[in-house]
Specification:
This protein has nine helices and no strands. It has 184 residues and is mainly alpha-helical. It has one domain: Oxo-4-hydroxy-4-carboxy-5-ureidoimidazoline decarboxylase (UraD-like). The protein is globular, with a radius of gyration of 19 Å.
Length: 184
């Protein structure tokens, strides 16, 4: 059996990063679009591959996600279900969405059920006001926390709200990119 050369670089191999770096440009674009469905972002992140390390990938992806435009928000929202609605499908992105929203419906007591009903009403108010679904990085946040955030955001003007949604999309894309790296 041949001897392997020890890794003297001091870094631990990153199988998730190696998998992404080995993808064709089109395969990488498909994977990245699951994290953030914004063509400019997908193209920018894909064009810089291969990445030397995970930190560089995450930092560059985060940088490219800043300043999402109103048009990009609308495109990205098309792939997100409403909070409280389970994403249909067996694909990776649907599974991520279900996991991200799992805390919202985790509490099943009467008080939590009332909060969820109030949330559904407030979500309708939001959609009427802004003409889009309410989007938030929901990972690990309870229905009460999400309701408080939603009510606070109802006071925003359209420009401010688009900026907030862009920031939420940036957070979601970062979490999903880590999930993509961990899927190796």
């Amino acid at each position: 059996m041949p001897e392997s050369t020890p890794d003297t670089s001091g870094s631990t191999p990153d199988p998730g990063l190696a998998r992404l770096n080995a993808l064709s440009r089109e395969e990488l674009r498909t994977e990245l679009a699951q994290c953030l469905n914004v063509d400019r972002w997908v193209e920018a992140v894909a064009s810089e591959a291969p990445y030397a390390d995970r930190g560089t990938l995450l930092a560059r992806a985060d940088g490219h996600a800043r300043g999402i435009t109103a048009e990009e928000v609308a495109t990205a929202l098309d792939r997100h279900p409403r909070i409280g609605e389970k994403a249909e499908g067996r694909d990776t992105e649907s599974a991520w969405s279900r996991g991200e929203q799992s805390a919202f419906a985790a509490d099943t007591d009467d008080a939590s059920a009332r909060v969820q009903r109030i949330f559904t009403f407030a979500q309708g108010e939001y959609e009427g006001r802004f003409g889009q679904i309410y989007l938030v990085c929901a990972s690990g946040r309870s229905s009460r926390e999400l309701l408080a955030d939603l009510v606070d955001r109802l006071d925003n003007d359209r420009e401010t709200e688009l900026s907030v949604v862009g920031e939420e999309l940036r957070k979601i894309s970062g979490l999903r990119l880590v999930k993509l790296l961990e899927a190796a």
